[in-house]
From TrEMBL:
Name by which UniProt lists this protein: Endoplasmic reticulum-Golgi intermediate compartment protein 3
GO cellular component: COPII-coated ER to Golgi transport vesicle; endoplasmic reticulum membrane; Golgi membrane
Domain Endoplasmic reticulum vesicle transporter C-terminal stretches: 1-89
UniProt keyword annotation of Cell membrane present: no
Topology in the lipid bilayer: Multi-pass membrane protein
Superkingdom to which the source organism belongs: Eukaryota
Keyword Transmembrane carried by entry: yes
């Protein structure tokens, strides 16, 4: 026995030149079960399809990003790298400093 559950979502794509493409998105879930008289499982052999049409529509719109948005993203990346490097530097400095103090005291093993 094969069971298929299909979900259909209406979708609209609006491009930069304002052309509109109406389409659908699909998702499928498949279940398969062996049907025989020997097993305790019972059921009718066949292929069964269940459809669910979504009452909501998804709309994708293309938009151009400004140069300011690009510059902000670059600054965020540089700032993140600088912050991670600073954390790594601090951890390394304190670890080496603690090890150096143990060596000076003669407790390093």
């Amino acid at each position: 026995m094969f069971q298929y559950y299909l979900k259909i979502v209406p979708t609209m794509y609006v491009r930069l030149d304002n052309t509109v493409l109406h389409t659908n998105q699909f998702s499928v879930t498949r279940h398969q079960k062996s049907v025989s008289n020997v097993n305790t499982e019972s059921g009718m052999p066949g292929a069964f399809f269940s459809y669910e049409l979504s009452p909501l529509m998804v709309k994708y719109t293309e938009k151009e990003r400004s140069i300011g948005h690009f510059a902000t993203n670059i600054c965020a990346i540089v700032g993140g790298v600088f912050t991670v490097a600073g954390i790594f530097d601090t951890l390394l400095y304190h670890s080496l400093n603690a090890f150096h103090n143990k060596v000076v005291l003669g407790k390093a093993g």
